[in-house]
Write a structure and sequence with these properties.
CATH superfamily of the largest domain: Response regulator
Radius of gyration: 19 Å
Low-confidence stretches: none
Number of helices: 8
Oligomer: single chain
CATH architecture of the largest domain: 3-Layer(aba) Sandwich
Mean pLDDT: 87
Number of strands: 12
CATH topology of the largest domain: Rossmann fold
Largest sheet: 5 strands, parallel
Order of helices and strands: EHEHEHEHEHEEEEHEHHEE
Bound molecules: calcium ion
Length: 224
Amino acid sequence: MKVLVVEDEKRILDFVRKGFEESGFSGDYCANGDDGYILAKTREYDVLILDIMLPGRDGLSILKNIREKGISTPVILLTARSELHERLDGLNSGADDYLTKPFFVEELIARVHSLMRRGDRQSSNLLEVGSLKLNRYTREVYVDGETTNLSTREFNLLEYFMRFPERVFSRTQLLEHVWDYNYDPNTNLIDVCVQRLRKKIDEGRESSYIESVRGVGYRFKKLD
Ligand code: CA
C-alpha cells in the first residue's frame, strides 16, 4: 500500500514516516502544499494524508482540487484542535476521515487500514441494504426485487444514505451533498425529498428505512 503524507511540521512528518515504514507501507512525504498537490494528481496512492495549514496550497484546497479532477483516493485530514470549522468543511469537501493533533501514529495507521477495508466494500457499484439494491452504474433501484423509478435527487439522496447506513446526517449535510447549488438554509427540500423517497422504498413496511432524528435530521436504518 502506498501513502502520500503532506505535513509541514518536520517532527510530525518524521514520526509518521517512521510509523508507515515500520508497518510496511511505501510512501511519499512532503512539506509543501503545492508539491503535495502535484504528487496527488500525478501518482497513484491508496490514501492521502493532508495537514490543513500548509505553506503553498492548504490541505482543503488540495482536497477540493483533486476531487474536482475526479480523483477519489481516500483522504485523511490532520487538524489542530482549534480547526473544527475547517474539519467540517473538509468532510463536506470529500474527506473520508480526520485526525486531531496530537495523535499516535498507531491511530493514524489504524484509520488507514479501516479506510482500505471500507474501500473494498465500496468499490462495487452495487449497494445493498435490507431488501433495497442500488446500482450506481446503471442508476437502477430495486425494492424487494422490483425496479422503482426515482428522480435524480431521490436517487442521490438514497445512494448517500445507503453508503452510510446508521449514520445521522443533518439537513445541511444532506443538502450540501445532494443539492449542488446555493440553497436557502430554511428550505424544506430535504424533507419533501425524504417523504417522496419513503413512499417509494417503504411500501408494505411497518417502519421506514429513513428515520427522523429529532432536532438533527435523518438516519438510514439497516432493516432486514
Ligand atoms: Ca501545518
